[in-house]
């Protein structure tokens, strides 16, 4: 189990690999503050859950400016249900995932490519689109959310958007 607080993972590259910023395999990563930005990977430019017993819990911090073929910000592929009180996969209750890109023509997921368990609540914020030259650009791979076939977003509590969301809850 690893906890990140006020740390920065930046400018890493694993283009043929997974998890440009951080890869979680058979463990638990909790991010409560800090930044993961400017990283590149094939899957999970910022963060990648790589196994059936991997958990990424985001309660705060920022994941931004990352690039991947799939899952510019986060690529979650953990499908294991709760065990010993732990829900594997990706749980987001705070923080912001923004300005991430993915290059796949389908199944991209600039913010998140989800092929696993994804739970959201609280002040989690994933604004759609990226800004280039002062203009908001939207579409596939531009900080969007991709759900693989038969995958869901589970809302496990109230959604309370942060002040910079201007009252919008974007999921």
Question: Can you describe this structure?
Answer:
The chain has a six-stranded parallel sheet, with no helix packed on it. A five-stranded parallel sheet has the order 4-8-12-16-20, with no helix packed on it. Strands 2-6-10-14 form a four-stranded parallel sheet, with no helix packed on it. It is globular and about 50 Å long. With 171 residues, it is mostly beta strands. Strand 18 and strand 19 form a beta hairpin. The two termini are 28 Å apart.
Which key phrases capture this entry?
single chain, 171 residues, mainly beta, six-stranded parallel beta sheet, five-stranded parallel beta sheet, 21 strands, 0% helix, 46% strand, globular
Which percent range describes the beta-strand content? over 45%
Proportion in helices: under 10%
Structural class comes to mainly beta
Low-confidence stretches: none
How would you characterize the largest beta sheet?
A: 6 strands, parallel
Q: What is the strand arrangement across the widest sheet?
A: 1-5-9-13-17-21
User: What is the β-strand count?
Assistant: 21
Order of helices and strands: EEEEEEEEEEEEEEEEEEEEE
Name the overall outline.
globular
Oligomeric status of the shown chains? single chain
The span between the termini is: 28 Å
Concise structural overview:
With 171 residues, the chain is an all-beta fold. The protein is built from no helices and 21 strands.
């Amino acid at each position: 189990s690893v906890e990140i607080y006020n740390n920065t993972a930046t400018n890493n590259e694993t283009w043929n690999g997974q998890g440009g910023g951080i890869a979680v395999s058979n463990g638990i990563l909790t991010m409560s503050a800090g930044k993961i930005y400017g990283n590149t990977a094939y899957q999970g430019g910022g963060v990648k859950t790589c196994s059936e017993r991997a958990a990424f819990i985001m309660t705060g911090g920022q994941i931004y400016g990352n690039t991947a073929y799939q899952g510019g910000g986060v690529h979650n592929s953990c499908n294991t249900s709760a065990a010993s009180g732990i829900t594997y996969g990706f749980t987001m209750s705070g923080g912001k995932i923004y300005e991430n890109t993915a290059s796949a023509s389908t199944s991209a997921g600039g913010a998140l490519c989800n092929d696993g368990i994804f739970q959201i609540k609280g002040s989690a914020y994933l604004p759609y689109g990226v800004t280039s030259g002062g203009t908001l650009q939207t579409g596939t791979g531009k900080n969007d959310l991709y759900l693989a076939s038969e995958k869901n977003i589970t809302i496990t509590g109230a959604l309370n958007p942060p002040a910079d969301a201007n009252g919008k809850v974007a999921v």
